Amino acid sequence: MNIARARQLQITGPDRKKSYGGDQRWFSSNTKAAGGCGSVAGANALRSLAMVNDAFREQIKNSSKIPAQVRDALCSKDPGYDSFSLLMTGIYETMGSFEIFPLNRIYDRVDRSSKVFTRIKSTMGLSNVGFIIGIIRFARKFSLDLAVKSCPTAFKSKEEARGFIKEGLAASGAVVMLTCKNRHNARLFDPDADLEQRLVDGKDSAIKSHFTTITDIDGDRLLITTWGKPGVVDLNELAGSWRSVKAYESCLMYIYPCTRKEATSCMLGAWKLFAGGIGHTLTRK
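Now predict its structure.
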């Protein structure tokens, strides 16, 4: 795997340790921390696009509409978590999440380590359609036009997925993966660990109802980021989890610069999917 490329999402966390991509725990709100995985994946995808697309990066740097901290989060080689948290929060507030009132208010007032977090949910999270519409709307706030290419993965073959992932990585530097009711493992490790040692020392975590960000592919290994940590997902296991109706709304997505007309068409297409009953499954972990 291209580790130098994989480290393009490096961020200095609040404890001065290196984080690999954004971390939901940086949200000040407990509800946002519980349901903000889609917003974090969106922030990671935008940063990756700015890292690999010179024209998009220059557009960001030259825009007077983009706050300095957001510009730093997208274009700096190692932004601080305060800048990246601001980007994550801005995306969340635009993209939204299905928060449940008044549980969200209660949730935000209890200690984050409280057992109430395991017993009640204050948010139903975000759907694939919500992600598409939200990231386009967020970019448009700053006069940036983006579209999202989506690949539904239910019953998708491993080779079809591999082709789409490689296409997305080449075009935008990252691919957002939505895992819905299907389940697969990811081996997560510390950001500074050697890749091969990671496979020995890493800890397997079950991924379900969650957005993650794919940053590289090597054979049947996908390098991802979630919760500020790098991880490896086995493509064979992942494709196996798609062979089920539980993967009905699971998908792969990547963003790319486009014209205003293309961005509008993409957003309208997402609304049509929602109206047709696709894109209702929400993720919150």
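The beta strands are 10-12, 18-20, 146-152, 175-179, 184-188, 203-207, 210-218, 221-226, 229-234, 251-257.
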